[in-house]
Design a protein that fits this description.
Rossmann fold; three-stranded mixed beta sheet; 201 residues
Length: 201
C-alpha cells in the first residue's frame, strides 16, 4: 500500500493516476495512522512553502512525516514535497521546513532569455548509482514547474541535477528518503519508470 499525503496542496490526482497505471494500491490520506502503516509514502504538492507548512501543521502531519522518514520505509517528495523536506525557503522567510534533510530552497535567479517560473522539459545529469534512476539513460528529459530550487547542504545526497540559470539539485536520495523537484507523474515514460523504481524499492 502506498499512501499519498493530502494536505490541500494540489497535484494529488495525477500522482494517484500514475501509480494506478503501474498497478499499485494507493490511498490518499491525511490520517496519521494510515500514513504510518503504509509500505511507502509520497508527499506531492504545488503552491507556496509557507502555506504548505501551515497546512501540514494544521493537519498534524509534521511529526507524522518526521516519524515516518525516521522509520526506514521509502518516502518520496515531489516538487513542493521535495522543498518541504529541507530547512528553509526564500519563498517564505522565517518559515521552518521539516528539516528532514539539510539544505535550503533558493529563488531561481533572473537571467536574460529564461522565464521564471521554470516550466518545461530539462535534461538530468544523473548520478550513476542513483536508485530512482535505475535503467534510465543520463541526460533524460523530465518536466519541471518551479520558481525556487534546492541547494542541498550535502552533495552526497544529490542523485540528479540540471541547469536553468543556476545549478539545480533536481533529485536527492538519502537512505530511505527520495525526492524530485520535477514531476515524474508528468514526465511521460521516463517519469513512469522513476515511479516504478520507487515502487520496487
Amino acid at each position: 500500500m502506498i499512501a499519498i499525503i493530502d494536505y490541500d496542496a494540489g497535484n494529488l490526482k495525477s500522482v494517484e493516476k500514475a501509480l494506478a497505471a503501474l498497478g499499485q494500491e494507493v490511498i490518499v490520506t491525511r490520517d496519521a495512522a494510515e500514513v504510518m502503516e503504509a509500505d511507502k509514502v509520497i508527499l506531492p504538492g504545488v503552491g507556496s512553502f509557507g502555506n504548505a507548512m501551515d497546512n501540514l501543521d494544521h493537519f498534524g502531519l509534521v511529526d507524522t512525516i518526521k516519524n515516518y522518514t525516521a522509520g526506514g520505509k521509502p518516502f518520496l517528495g515531489i516538487c513542493l514535497g521535495l522543498q518541504l523536506l529541507f530547512e528553509r525557503s526564500d519563498e517564505t522567510p522565517g518559515a521552518e521546513g521539516l528539516s528532514v534533510l539539510p539544505g535550503e530552497i533558493l529563488r531561481i535567479p533572473m537571467q536574460d532569455g529564461l522565464k521564471i517560473p521554470h516550466m518545461g522539459w530539462n535534461s538530468l545529469d544523473i548520478r550513476p548509482d542513483a536508485a530512482l534512476f535505475r535503467g534510465i539513460p543520463n541526460n533524460s528529459y523530465v518536466y519541471f514547474v518551479h520558481s525556487y530550487y534546492l541547494k542541498a547542504a550535502d552533495e552526497r545526497d544529490v542523485a540528479a541535477s540540471t541547469e536553468y540559470a543556476v545549478h539545480i539539485h533536481a533529485s536527492v536520495e538519502h537512505g530511505n528518503i527520495f525526492a524530485c523537484q520535477f514531476h515524474p507523474e508528468k514526465s511521460s515514460g521516463i517519469g513512469l519508470k522513476i515511479l516504478q523504481n520507487f515502487v520496487a524499492l
